[in-house]
Design brief:
This protein is of the alpha/beta class. The protein has 8 helices and 8 strands, in the order H-H-E-E-E-H-E-H-H-E-H-E-E-H-E-H.
């Protein structure tokens, strides 16, 4: 009996050691992330400050057009290991076109740790979100954030009209679902997994559209500089964001 207890003790010690090592590796991994290019975000914000109200709490940010003729609601999941405020520029531009935008803050900057982020950011604001219940709601995301958004959409059923992917792809099968899908990617993107992107086309619903931004890169859907390994852009960060918003608006307003 003593021998069995001793074996169990060493097994527990070994498991605890593995858990500690895993925790240390995870902390080191998540401590290195891309931070917001505040200068670019501030430039966009200053242009749209008179058109957009922005609010924030511990769960993220909400961007409300001051013109209350709202067109739709877009919930945007940030890319992996990117500070969520890096997407404020894109959200300001969309809100400036009368889209209500929700930008969740993800634990450790990883959307996979909070796939239900839209539920978290709207909790406690039922009255406010209720006033937008008659609008079309879209889930959106950049890179791994788009993958996470697709997994949540797969569970959310009919609550959302479609999925907007920026340099991303779905990890759930929507090929037989009655939803819309928009895929936007830069022609100079060198970060997205192109094999996974092509394979995921089989998951696209029938009502899908793809747009390629000439000269655009993976990183410029947000404002956080240029990601390691990305291509060389031939357009500016703000130009790519403006083109992205043009594409999203045209798609949202089309039949």
């Amino acid at each position: 009996m003593k021998k069995i207890l001793k074996i169990i003790k060493w097994i527990l010690i070994a498991l605890a050691s593995v858990a500690v090592v895993f925790a240390i590796v995870f902390i080191i991994y998540t401590s290195k992330y891309y931070r917001t290019d505040k200068e670019t975000v501030d430039s966009i914000e200053s242009r749209l400050d008179e058109k957009v109200n922005a609010y924030s709490d511990d769960n993220g940010m909400v961007f409300i057009p001051k013109n209350r003729d709202y067109k739709a609601v877009i919930v945007f999941y940030p890319g992996g290991k990117v500070e969520y405020t890096s997407y404020s520029g894109l959200m300001y531009e969309l809100a400036g076109r009368e889209y209500i935008c929700l930008l969740p803050r993800m634990p450790e900057n990883l959307a996979f740790l909070r796939i239900n982020a839209v539920d978290v950011i709207t909790k406690g604001y039922e009255e406010e979100t209720g006033s937008a219940k008659d609008l079309d709601w879209y889930l959106a995301g950049h890179s791994l954030g788009g993958v996470a958004a697709s997994l949540f959409l797969d569970e959310a059923g009919d609550d959302y009209k479609g999925l907007i992917l920026c340099a991303s792809y779905p990890d759930a099968d929507f090929s037989d679902k009655d939803i819309r899908l928009l895929s936007i990617i830069g022609s100079k993107d060198e970060v997205v997994n192109k094999e996974a992107y092509e394979r995921a086309r089989a998951y696209w619903p029938e009502d899908s559209e793809e747009y390629i931004i000439e000269g655009g890169i993976h990183s410029y859907f947000g404002c956080y500089g240029i990601q390691k390994g990305d291509g060389e852009p031939t357009i500016s960060n703000e130009e790519q964001i403006e083109q992205t918003v043009d594409i999203i608006e045209e798609w949202c307003l089309s039949p």
